[in-house]
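Entry type: protein chain
Record version: 2
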Amino acid sequence: MTDILQNYLGGRWIAGVNGGVSLRDPIRGTDLVRVDATGLDLKAGFAFSRREGGGALRSLTYRQRGEMLGAIAKLLQGRRDAYYEIALANSGTVKNDSAVDIDGAIYTISTYAKLAQTLDDRRFLFDGDAAALAKEAAFQSRHVLVPTRGLALFINAFNFPSWGLWEKAAPALLSGVPVVVKPATSTAWLAQVMVRDVVEARILPAGALSIVCGSSAGLLDALEPFDVVSFTGSAETAGVIRSHPAIAQRSVRANVEADSVNSAILAEGEAPGEGAFDLLVKEVVREMTVKSGQKCTAIRRILVPCKHYDAVAEAICARLGKVTVGDPRNTTVRMGALVNRAQYASVREGLARLREEAKVLHDGASHALVDADPAVACCLGPTLLGIPDPDRSALVHDIEVFGPVATLMPYRDAAHALDLARRGQGSLVASLFGSDAAMLSRLSLELADSHGRVHVVSPDVADVQTGHGNVMPQSLHGGPGRAGGGEELGGARALNFYHRRAAIQASKAVVEVLGN
């Protein structure tokens, strides 16, 4: 019998009362650990977090909280090797892909630790300057941001058990709000070990960081009006969350990041063999293969000028043909597995639906698996589809196949490219590849209304651009419409979600004391 991961709630470690669910190695199919959250007193545990964790965090200044984040980053950095081993076993990822999750989390925590040093050594923030409400400014209004007196519940997706935890927890803890994280069951092991390490190091006050591993049943029921909830996952589950009485009736603040059919666009005027053309090809292949395409920001649709459709297809297929797929324990393997058999089946089903409208340009089935049994391993080779007439297609603009699948399509002119990108009904990110600065600037603004982030790649930044799918803590993460309508990160902007804004109306003397 494998070990069961304990939950940390109410300031103590607690095991579920049932046998739990086994987490499995997606390459070898072996059982790793079990998770179980049945029998937990969520209401009491949440109350402890609000009272003890929240009270202790709010008593500290932003700079003091930032020092704690710095200590967490240092601790996690020293234990990276152990985290890489867990990611390999539980997620089936090659080392470079695990780095996106693990090192990306540490970098994000460090970024918010540094941000804390730029904030005033106080326990609240100002939002704008004082405004006069009477003659000679004798009576004034000043807006303030104060930490919400609740907790932050995070319901996370399976693809980033480390980064998904810390990209939310870092700004929450810096804001002075205690955290309860519910990682996706299939990859909860890494998140649980990280939380355990931080708890045992006694970096944070009791109740500031809690974790529930297993079923999410009852979590939303335990929320109160001043709590906040942040969800990453499917649009279907997001709809369930938004309709829950905690959000619909008790006005718990909710942030959602959901499905997204992101685009990469090759600008007009770029030719095969030139810088922007080659940069697009490399980026598409990278986005299709990193974490086996299991990224909410991965490129799903590739939009290119009609005259370059065949050339782009040939170039991408040539690179995809060199990708080795299988067990990451073999150092020749470049792409590992999908997270489990359920995800494997979901990707195959989605791919079959897209093939109703699209042609297969590169078939992932052509990739022989390295050191992996096809009957056991959750491995799929990268597949490139093509749709010569994207105007007549509906599925490609609506279905996100959450795996190593992307679809190439031609556009007639810039207006047509923008229209196709917008048919995604709101996305997390679109990337532009070109060399004409004026054109790229104009297209960026045109895309901004329907995308949370516009990533522009030109030859002059080829060596320093951060990648279409990489979410940097300094930039906004989220998107309108079907992408969920949420916002995370974006530097100090992330703190807004965990604060309450209020107007203080008082005499000039009182307002001046606030400033001191």
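Comment: The first strand starts at residue 4 and ends at 5.
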